Structures are given as C-alpha cells and as structure tokens.
Amino acid sequence: MAQFALRRSHIIAAASLTALLASCAHSPQPPAPSQPPVTSPSPETGPISYESSGHADIDAWRKDFSARALAAGHDRAVVKSVLTGISPLELWLGSTFQPAQTGIEDQAEFAKPIWDYLRVPMSNSRISTGQARLAENPALFDALEAAYNVDREAIVAIWGMETSFGAIKGNYDGPNVLANMAVEGRRKGLAESELLSLMKILEKGDAQRDDLKAGWAGAMGHTQFMPSTYIAFAQDFDGDGLKDIWNSEADALASAANYLSSSGYALHQPWGIEVLAPTGFDYSLADGNERRMESWMQAGLVPAAGGAFNTNGANYAELWLPAGAEGPKYLLFNNFKVFKTYNNADSYAFAVGLSGDAMGGRMGPVAAWPTHLHPLTVSEIKTLQAALNAKGFDAGVVDGIPGRKTKGALQAFQKSQGLVADGYPTREALAMVTGSGSVGVAVSPGTN
Fold this sequence. Notes:
Layout: H1 2-25, H2 56-71, H3 76-83, H4 90-93, H5 108-111, H6 114-117, H7 124-136, H8 138-148, H9 152-163, E1 172-173, H10 174-184, H11 188-204, E2 213-214, H12 227-233, H13 249-262, E3 272-276, E4 291-292, H14 293-298, E5 302-303, E6 316-320, E7 329-332, H15 334-342, H16 346-359, H17 378-390, H18 404-416, H19 427-434
Antiparallel strand pairs: 1-2, 3-5, 3-7, 4-6, 6-7
C-alpha cells in the first residue's frame, strides 16, 4: 500500500510538471530585440572623378569624353577603368613631338622603294619562320581553312607582316594610346570611336581590362586589330569563352581569317600572277582597270613561270607595274584587293602575297628589280602631284602617296609626250613633268 501511495504521488507530480510546462509554452514571450535595417550604398552618380594626369589638355578631354561615354549608356565602372591612369606619351604629346613621326614619311609602305620594302617580309628569316609555324600545327591550319575558306599561306603571311608571328605585338596600354591620339587632335574622331569600341569589348566580357595592349596607333594582338575590327570579326576559336587575340594564336589567326573571308577572299585562287609582256606592249593598259583573262592573253601576256594561266576560276585581273615597265609585272586578282582591306597600301598587299607564296614554296618575282632607277621620296611625290595638277593631269590631292590616281595622271602625261606610259614616279619622270630635264623613254622595253 505504501509503495502504491508512493507511486501515485510520483504520477501526480509528473502530471503537474507536464501541465506547468504546457502552460509556459502557451504563455506570450517577450519580443526579440529589433535589428537595424540593412542598407546598400547608393550607386555613384554624376561625373566620374579622376586623378590628374599632370597634363591639362588630357584632363580636360577626359572629363568631357567620360561624360559623353556615360551619356551614351556605357557602364560606369567600365568607363572609369578605361580612362583611369591616362597619361601623356612622348610619341603623341611630348615636347619633341613632330607630326612626321606618325605621318606618311614614316610608313615604309610609302617611304621606301618597293625592293627595299620587301627585304624584311621576303627575308630568309621571315620565310623560314613562317614555314616552321605552318609545319608546327597543321591541324590548326586545316581547321582554319575549313572554317573560313582562306588559304593558310595568306593567314600566316598576314601574321608575319603584322607582328612577326607575335614577336612584336606592342606593349602600349591601348586606351592610353587612343586617348593621346584624341588629345593630339588630327584623328580625334577615329580615336574616340575606337575607345568606345574598347568599352563595348569589356562590357561584353570578350576580354579583360589588362588584356588591352596595343601598338603605337591602337592596333591590338597577334594580328593587330583595331577595337572596332575586333568587335566585328574577333573569334573564340579555342572555345575558352574569350576572344583572346593577345595570347591565343588560335583566336588571333581565326579572327584574321574571318576578316579576310568576310572581305571576299576566294580559297585557292591567286592573289597575283607574274607575267611577261611582248615588245611594243601598251603599258597604259596598267590603268587600274580589270579586264578578262582572255583580253590579257590576246594582248600577249604570258606567265613568267611558264606554262598556261591557272586562276582557279578568277576570270578578271588588272595589270600592275610595281616598279614600272622595267621591273616585274603582275596581273592582280580579287584576293589582292582583299589583302588591301587589311592595309590599303599596294606594297603591303604585294608583300603579303609574295611572302605567302614563298612560305608555300613558290618564290618570286622572276624578273629583276630595276634598282638603277630613282624612285621619288614622299616630298618629291608631292612636287610631282602638284606639277601634274598644274598641267591639267588630275593627280588628285597632293598628299605624297603615289596611288592609282597619281600614277594614272603620270601615265596620261607620258602618253602625251610619246613616252612609255607606265606611270612609275621616278626622278627622271619628275624632271620631265616639271621641265627641269629631258630624261625619258621613248620606246617600250622588250619582253621581260
């Protein structure tokens, strides 16, 4: 009985405790202490502040351009990253700056005789290195040809011409170069447009800010793309999510191939064929106009290498005399014009074509260069242009560039004087035009 009473008291105690706990569970609890609300920092607005470059013109330009970039809708952080750290470059804004340092006189395409210009692109070192690069990765070049329908020799020749196969890509900060160009003023519109393109590249995530290394004029990477060209044609050929023309050879070469393909390159068609002309040939036909291959054959032109013409379907060509009637002569096809979309100088496109052929085992030219002639300097070209214009032969703008219009005007003058109308601007030709001499060629040279 006593044991039963003890057990009963334990049961009653347990029940009371349970009821007490249940009562506590339903009792109102004191509120938890309130936490302060979490607030995010307000986004920056208004003009971006930059540390001074120490150059008043740069600072003023940057303040204005930064505001215009923001107003155009560019990402604030990107604008700031592109324009932070801008500083004057001696090349563009230094105390010893001379316009000629970045002018026609300093561009080898215009300042050197063609045979001197070709010494580097046709050197044993350039050709053997190009051949080695082709042999190192045939699978890559197979894939590039299949994807873009551009001959591998053309791709590697462009690579060699632009950066010597990546050895000389330029180590300037791209935004800084373009900013200096804008402040210097002669190409302000171009420079500012390219800076906006750089911002788009970063906004799309195609490259990182630190990647944007460039040459002295803002061209970037293995194959020297301007930012706007990058946006239009750059490729991610290695599939890593970046269009890395600075560090990925696959991306850079695919980008160049895409550019050439988009410009109209035709796979396996020639860029040019060296020809021989018969005695008495009318060199005024080298007038920049394309004619059917049948017409050139009827005029007596034959391949300098012998045999028949093989153009793989290219039916139209123009006759070009890179060193006048006494030097090598070429029929030029559409692929030559495609090379000129990369650099509009005839000598550049010629070097691409010749060096690409040599890397593929086809050396040229066959004919010798007439190194006894005296091609004109840039300043002498300007004198020639002015003199031709004064005599009524339209040479166009007096700019020192011996382009097709200048050569056409000289041809017209030569023809009016009964001379060989090859349009090649030599000191002898200049003397004839200005009346300071009587040197001339009255009869056409024989076949060569």
